[in-house]
Backbone:
DNA sequence: CGACTACATTGATTCACATCAAGGTCGGGA
DNA sequence: TCCCGACCTTGATGTGAATCAATGTAGTCG
């Protein structure tokens, strides 16, 4: 059990902030990822009205913790977060990484309490979407209801991909798949698909993929030796994308 | 690639059936599991009107296949199904078992195509719930919309449990957890929590848990030797529930 | 600046589960 | 009834990743 020193006194509570961040859904660079809706502009305004933007999360600060009352889902505007669960015997399982444009917190709906914790891997700006407002709006806007069902369904299929990865694939394949996944998530934001910085530690990668740090490190070394990847601490450059895909041995 | 000989010519298409099965949601023994809604009786009638009951699925018959157009979600009325994905290199990954009262097919929403296949492990009766009707009804009935969001969220949290199990737990713990999960699902239906028949093969269990048949078999033998379980092929009797829980080492 | 701490790499050894191999058991069909 | 094929169990051996151990590197704070 670590104590999160970096966390400020008010903890994970997001205070609606008076100063504007000059962002709204209409002009947000990420809206094609976050809400790829054929929304009418007045529909966007309705959504806009319920979304709360708040002061950024610092590195290691929690957005919410396992067991917290579920109030909202969250969209990442900048930075990266990890979601994780703590098992009964105190071990940690990273269940996902969330990049800009992605939505997290949906696992809290079923029990009205968050089933996992979410903390910032680096400074992160977040859009908070109060769930009851979202529900009401969904009833009025079929396309929004549909979109949200799809988002949750996507979370399910992605979890199933991870289940398959953990159950059927070797260490090499797992790490390669994660690199490809991160690469495509950068590409989706019009950033380089072949050169990027990993926001998470080797421990987090290993934890997510069901491997130890040492194994992750060895896989990176191996990939480097094979001229598939160039690894400089957290800086990654993909040198041989087809080679990486072959190593991953999965569609992902 | 197996050919499913048991499958009848019309494949997975469910034909609405003229003869009544004397079942409706109002009197269904499973409705506390399937739709634990404080539904007004006229609300139940509205739901009733969109649900289609059809002729039972025979063992090994598919309810839907990976890639099929997504039209409906399904509730199991009797029997058991398994859901599975086929990986690029032809391996199979079992992603879940579905018992009476449980809902499957929600992974198809995100892409309008089923992300996995579902086949009957034994003769099974199914309620089909056309999704577009469900969506429309959800807009009108906030409690139904909420319920469906919760169902999907539960699927997410359960998948995350499995991810943790695969990533962090030993063969013994995995098998013990599955036995406890099945036990509690029987208990929920007011059936014996300590004596039941496994509807799935050892291969399916191993596949679901990321283990080989041999390992599953050995774990059962070990549990039997420890007087935790009595195993007679597919008949299971839990002799020492606390012992089994201790072996599982997880809350699930 | 230098020292402390968290993070990352690399090597040696161990171990849990996979793989390979051989029988055993059950259930359905001729 | 007996036979066949699918399913299950058990044993012997192999191996990929965990564990243990040591060293290297980067970022941080007094």
Residues:
């Amino acid at each position: 059990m670590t104590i999160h020193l970096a966390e400020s006194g008010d903890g994970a509570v997001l205070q609606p902030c008076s100063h504007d961040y000059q962002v709204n859904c209409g002009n947000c660079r990420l809206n094609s990822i976050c809400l790829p809706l054929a929304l009418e502009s007045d529909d966007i305004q309705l959504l806009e009205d319920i979304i709360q933007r708040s002061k950024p999360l610092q590195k290691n600060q929690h957005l919410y913790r396992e067991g917290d009352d579920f109030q909202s889902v969250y969209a990442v505007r900048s930075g990266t977060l990890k979601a994780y669960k703590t098992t009964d015997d105190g071990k940690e399982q990273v269940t996902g990484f969330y990049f800009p444009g992605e939505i997290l917190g949906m696992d809290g709906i079923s029990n009205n309490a968050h089933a996992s914790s979410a903390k910032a891997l680096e400074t992160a700006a977040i859009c908070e979407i109060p769930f009851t407002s979202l529900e009401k709006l969904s009833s009025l806007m079929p396309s929004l209801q549909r979109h949200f069902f799809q988002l949750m369904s996507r979370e399910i299929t992605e979890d199933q991909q991870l289940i398959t990865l953990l159950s059927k694939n070797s260490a090499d394949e797992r790490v390669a798949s994660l690199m490809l996944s991160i690469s495509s998530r950068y590409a989706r934001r019009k950033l380089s698909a072949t050169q990027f910085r990993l926001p998470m530690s080797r421990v987090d990668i290993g934890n997510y993929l069901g491997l130890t740090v040492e194994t992750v490190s060895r896989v990176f070394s191996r990939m480097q030796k094979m001229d598939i990847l160039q690894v400089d601490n957290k800086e990654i450059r993909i040198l041989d994308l087809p080679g990486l895909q072959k190593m991953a041995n999965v569609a992902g």
